[in-house]
Task: inverse folding
């Protein structure tokens, strides 16, 4: 069994890239998750921050590109840490900074860039999402639920 990614903020000097993503929560409190392109995993929308984009703008772009969803993205990150990805069949060990934002009021778009690659969007309950998420993404999901305004 491969070692899962883990948070280690003491290794920030080794960081090779920054990625940003979204915990997108529907009014019915379900969370948007997707099939990973790197194996049989279910993941939150996230991607490497492209040159010239802020983490915030990149997160919006990744959400629409990977999931075909637009949402209201709240400006304060709910997660900003350095994550270690151990060596695997996808490459050597790497450290990347990951920044996630909370998204609400999702709107589905008709077509999106990675629709044929990822299969259908998955709207999961909190317990379902926690069951399939990696250890790091479980933390991100819980932070999103802490941030949410359920009134």
Result:
């Amino acid at each position: 069994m491969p070692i899962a990614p883990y948070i280690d903020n003491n290794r920030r000097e080794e960081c090779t890239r920054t990625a940003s993503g979204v915990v997108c929560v529907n009014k019915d409190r379900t969370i948007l998750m997707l099939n990973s392109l790197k194996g049989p995993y279910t993941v939150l929308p996230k991607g490497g921050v492209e040159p010239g984009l802020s983490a915030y703008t990149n997160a919006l772009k990744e959400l629409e590109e990977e999931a075909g969803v637009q949402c209201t993205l709240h400006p304060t990150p709910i997660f900003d840490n350095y994550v270690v990805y151990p060596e695997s069949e996808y490459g050597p060990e790497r450290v990347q900074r990951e920044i996630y934002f909370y998204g609400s009021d999702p709107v589905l778009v008709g077509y999106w860039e990675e629709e044929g690659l990822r299969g259908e969007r998955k709207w999961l309950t909190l317990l379902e999402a926690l069951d399939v998420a990696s250890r790091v993404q479980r933390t991100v999901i819980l932070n999103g639920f802490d941030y949410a305004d359920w009134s």
About this structure: The longest strand covers residues 94-108. The chain has a mean pLDDT of 92. Residues 43 and 133 are 6 Å apart (CA to CA).
